[in-house]
Amino acid sequence: MVNEKVQAAEENLLHIYNRFPVTLDYGEGVYLYDTDGKQYLDFAAGIAVMGLGYHNEELEEALKEQITKLCHTSNLYYHENCGEAAAALTKASGMDKVFFTNSGTEAIEGALKTARKYAYLKQSGRYEFIAMENSFHGRSIGAVSVTGTKAYREPFEPMLTGVHFAEYNNLDSVKALVNDKTCAIILEPLQGEGGIHPAAQEFMEGIRKICDEQDILMICDEIQCGMGRTGSMFAWQEYGVKPDIMTMAKAIGNGIPVGAFAVTENVALNSMKPGDHGSTYGGNPLACMAVKKVLKLYEKNHIVDHVIETAAYLTEQLDRLVEKYECIKERRGKGLIQGIVLTESPTGVVNRALEEGLIIITAKGNTIRFVPPLIIEKEHIDEMIRKLEKALSE
Q: Are 198 and 232 in contact (CB under 8 A)?
């Protein structure tokens, strides 16, 4: 019956996504429910989006109120939500200026354009990017161009010119690519899609040093690993290595489509000018209400502190699985963005987990990815482990 519903739902859609054979209906807290009423413990959170979980009444009330007032004006007019959301986001991120987009991919596009405009105004002749192997930055041509997996790029070549790929966590490989045309180095402080790989402290510090010495911009992509997920509000803060440009999306709107890129004062003063970039829907009143309210709820509910507490327990339980099962090679990650690497494809485990009422997703390299809502409790981790063990044992 579920498959028939899925087939009907997809009848008029272009077949691009490999969807699971489930038609979801509603959510409550850390659980999702399908149209047959079956309950699923969600350890994917819409791919790290639903940090506050589902049916958060305070957020929903704020959004409902905003819908009755104004959803769209275009960016030719000012509205208070935009300024207030930007102020809250700069405070949380440690950056100075924000531009709102509709998605993480759009945030990457803005970051790349900003870096090139910065170099253009300095008349430096710089236009090239150094990106990381195994990285993921989005699906547009610009974002795919700096994504370090050939399979994502190859069908759509030629890509953006002047992009070179270094080995993640290998500073010498970065240094070998730096030249007088390099305008920016882009990386994720923790690679998510690429298999849950955290950056080493010395790698982050080394890139910052290279950028400072050669007037190159450092771009940190925190679309997946930001907003409290690693145990700090944004991952760069844990390293103490501030980027010049940072991208964010996913959890900043808790399900409302919104992204942003943020820059330092120096970059803001020496890059984009009116007319260089824009977005019809970016920074609209509804999206900015979501950002503003989400950040208030993070502070009110001490979300980052909660992540630190529950992440320690999740780490402990996943490490126990590594010791128990020969099919698990290792655990890696930090905070509530964790992964276990299997000796073979995790597809079967993920599908059996779904049958058990557990939603998990994969990442590159036979990795099962755990990015649950940040409001999970230890009891939810215990439930997840029980269901996962059933899926591993079958």
A: no
